[in-house]
Amino acid sequence: MKNPTRSGGLPDFQRDNIARMEGYLPGEQLNDSSIIKLNTNENPFPPSTPVQEALRKLEPTDLRRYPDPLSTGFRSAIAQTHGLNLDATIATRGGDELLRLVITTFVEPGSTIGMTDPTYSLYETLAEIHACPTFKVDISRHWKPAPDFAAMMNHINARLILLVNPHAPSGSLLPISQIDAICAEARGIVLLDEAYIDFVDPALAYDAIPLLARHGNLIILRTLSKGYSLAGMRLGYGLASPGLIAPMLTKTRDSYNLDTISQRVGEAALAGRDESRRSWATVRAERARLRTELAGRGIETLPSESNFLLARIPNSVAASDGPDAHRTYLGLKDRKILVRYFSTPALADRLRISVGTPEENSALLAALDDIRAGK
Length: 375
What we know:
By secondary structure, the chain is an alpha/beta fold. The protein has helices at 16-20, 49-57, 72-82, 94-106, 122-129, 149-155, 176-185, 242-252, 260-271, 273-296, 325-334, 358-373, and strands at 36-37, 89-92, 113-117, 134-138, 160-164, 189-193, 218-223, 236-240, 300-301, 308-312, 337-338, 340-341, 350-354. It folds into two domains: 25-46 and 276-373, Aspartate Aminotransferase, domain 1; 49-271, Type I PLP-dependent aspartate aminotransferase-like (Major domain) (Aspartate Aminotransferase, domain 2), CATH 3.40.640.10. It has a seven-stranded mixed β-sheet with strand order 2-8-7-6-5-3-4, sandwiched between helices. Strands 9-10-13-12 form a four-stranded antiparallel β-sheet, with helices on one face. A two-stranded parallel sheet has the order 1-11. Strand 12 (340-341) and strand 13 form a beta hairpin. The mean pLDDT is 93.
């Protein structure tokens, strides 16, 4: 087959599926310290004291040699945190690397990958890279999969099911009983993406870790980007039965996937877990305040167990004929406040708003008042 040409007459050597795809579109990252950034779900508070101390103790000579290829110290901290054996853990370059590893290791190109719609948009991008079709179940009415979700996945022979909980972008939380039932019924691997788990109300007593002992097809994804304020470092990990961890750890993982700095910071972050919990509690309190304040302005938000709110923007938010969600997004951006707008049909009338500091959240509310007043 001849390679198609691109502009200038040069051949285009991309695989056909890569040439057709659009690629993942991340949230805006503007290099402006005056911007209030409520668009990419970062923790608005600094990393813990142990993390800061670990960074201060690093010496340039620490970088002369290759890091531990298996991230043993960090993985030991992960295992201790969750009461698991070392061989049930894998350390990764953010949660996104774990997603790639799972697809590369367990999914044949051309096999179907199942997910909800909407969901984390990178899922579909990774499936396209691997030349895998996707089967998406619309959950935009209730924001949770229906009871027959696993049966639908079995019907289309999904090799992998990607399920984010708390859900993105709604923030809704699927109960453990339903996750348990999905894993029990599904014939494929279930990857439970718990990127936002640290912001779940402790009173709900949500804990998926015990499910690992009951389901050999379950992989749990965790990240330190959100709860531990380490989005700039890209640290994550996976938890699963040793039979699922081993091929990723010894065959498909990059040989030195985590550098020395990341491994030490990861250990320190888990050691400072109690301090990080205080930031999670503050985020939960601000999430509740922000939801109440938005409701008072006629802006409906879904109940959220994450560090963001999905807000429906009515036309009445602004003066005259009023902006829709996209116009409100642009109005906030003009005021140096970034939130996330998605143009997909299920989300076109909504904005996803990350919970910021109390001062940032108050600035957002004031900006919305200005937009409403036509200022």
